[in-house]
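Risk mitigation, structural track. In case the binding assays with cytidine-5'-monophosphate fail to produce interpretable data, a predicted complex structure has been prepared as a fallback.
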Amino acid sequence: LTRQDLDGKCVLVSAGPTREPIDPVRYISNPSTGKMGYAIARAAEHRGAKVILVTGPVSISPPENVETHKVMTALEMAEVVLAQAERADIVIKTAAVGDYRCEREAEQKIKKTGDCMTLDLVPNPDILMELGKRKGKKVLIGFAAETEKLTDHAQEKLRKKNLDMIAANLIGPSDSGFGADTNKITCFSCGGATDALGLMSKEAAAHAILDKAAGFLPECGV
Ligand code: C5P
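Fallback model:
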């Protein structure tokens, strides 16, 4: 039996990509499969937490005994996460949220003309940054998928978004990041600690992240 160290705690996990519509048949998205977030939701449930999973469109099934909210766009994810976060002791934002959306979704399928085309994009709200502004006693954990300068980018996001910890991985290597069953995560904590977890299954990484998240709960005195 998994230890029940999250018994009585509420953990909110966001997972998967978002889809930003261009017209009725096209969208902007990314290759996130939801595997890492779903692994965290499952692990938190096994450890006794009440789990709220807010998920973009993915092809895997949600874990059992988890309250699942399905969303499509970043704006929908923002609305659900910001409302549900009120109940959460720990928020883990694994989702790969689209940074921009089309200013207007075309009502009809856009026809090709042979000319160049420009899409007008406007920034989406940064959900985690919003949570960081009203953090309270909540434990906030972010993810950062980077193609370069992992440490610099992760530490900047940790600070800017007012997080307790950020779990960062490089995308590019086939054993980590989008779609892989394994991940190679480095955790950067607000106190300055850095912990390179090494290559492990997403399930093992999920438990390692939850171990650290539990350590930030107010009763742990951090
Ligand atoms: O996209 P970025 O690298 O800034 O993502 C870092 C963290 O912020 C991730 O945990 C991601 O889920 C979160 N994020 C968010 N809302 C956005 C963009 C990112 O919550 N619009």
